[in-house]
């Protein structure tokens, strides 16, 4: 963005009514009616009195309040009011100047409507007497142009033009006066301007003729040039005028007075009539008045007078601090706004002049913004580096304007800029992977684990919802996730024996557009419960014919202690202690003859077999796991004490009478 190279200039007469058209500003800055809503045309003026405004159609520059050229600019010509026009998308600044043209709305006026002049009758013809200046605040042809005097054979009028261009009327004595013939003369002085129609003002001049006084007063200077600082305290001596008179007595006593002084200066200075000391009577202000002019009259006791001009220049001191006006352009600021974007316009004014009125602006503190000068009195506040709402959601920026005076004066203005959120952060899980441990046989709907993700963004951009996003094969039907809370629930009862662990992926997604998301893995470990009793593989119950024993073993009667009779084989589908099996002999025909290994399940003879032992033995072993509570199963084993299978068959035949043939028996080694 940049400021336009050339100013847009308008000219209007003063005293236009409110709402009067100044110029087609929108057209002159190059905006079409279609662009107006998006370009947001605005005006910025550093003047406290807003003389201009944009019309309701936001296209034409119009008068906002009464404009009095004389009140705004005084005698300065041309009278120019400046303002800035600001547009956006893209940002640009146009400098606008409005020249206020004078109209003839003021008639010339004299400071004194009655002027009294004393002339000694011995005054020689050709003597000149300054008359009070007429004043017309208008400029150009509308200002005071000439003076006219009523015809009189004794007096004429001469208009002298001073170096600064002002016209000063002087009364010229054409013929000798004779007090004895006429003691008083009455004249009318008329000041006329060059307006259309012509305006005028009058002053009455009364001339008193006095007796002779040989020597008039003489000032030490014809023109006193004085320079005063505007901060000169009241009652301070500003300067002194001095006149001398060659006469003696009362004719040499000089009395000083202002014979011609502007109303604006009359209340600022006092003249001591005896000493000629001029003192400050009111506050001097360079910004209100830079130059004053007066005429001092010195009159002796005999009525003779002399006149001297006084030119007073007021020197500026640094007594005005700069003033700032802030115009936010972009507030709040989206955090993804690119650097170099203009967010505000700052207009600076300092009523002082020279270095006292030159102002530098800077930002207090280290912020991601910088100031860039657009014109002499305008700065742009620009984004200097990337913004991040998650680090700083608002900036309270203080802008200091400091002039170059000595000592310098400064002022500050604060501007709060808020940063609006954009969806630039994806949700972040508290953990990359979650582990959950759930005992099997859980109820459907039981909570498994809660996942949490945080999003640094605000509003909908930071509102997180949760979804399942896949997982290990077959894991999807096992769990569900609540969208708002992230709670993971079991969809069904888990069975450790079917599935010992599974994993699912949970996606956290924010509410931005476009949405951002991240995933985390939830690994569920199913814990075993003791829900399976041991299962005996051997001896198998009912393995033989219906009338035969489930299992039998033949033990020779010559077997010694420790002889391996059989081994009970059992398994448990559970895990850990729930599948840790122990064996115990709970029933036997001869309890002291056999024993079973606690952990091996091996059935052995506890002593040597004797002839007294019965040929048929029945053993019942119990198999228990170590769960809480423990589950168990039993195994029944039939033992035949015989030296060989043929010897054992008769014993078995008795039990199997009417049954299947021995060939169908199952034998286990």
From TrEMBL:
Keywords: Calcium, Cell adhesion, Cell membrane, Glycoprotein, Membrane, Repeat, Signal, Transmembrane, Transmembrane helix. It is a single-pass type I membrane protein. Residues 4-110, 111-219, 220-324, 333-429, 430-536, 555-652 form the Cadherin domain. It is found in: Cell membrane. Its main location: membrane. The keyword Transmembrane applies. One of its GO terms (molecular function) is calcium ion binding. GO terms for cellular component: plasma membrane. Signal peptide: none annotated. This is PCDGH protein. It comes from Stercorarius parasiticus.
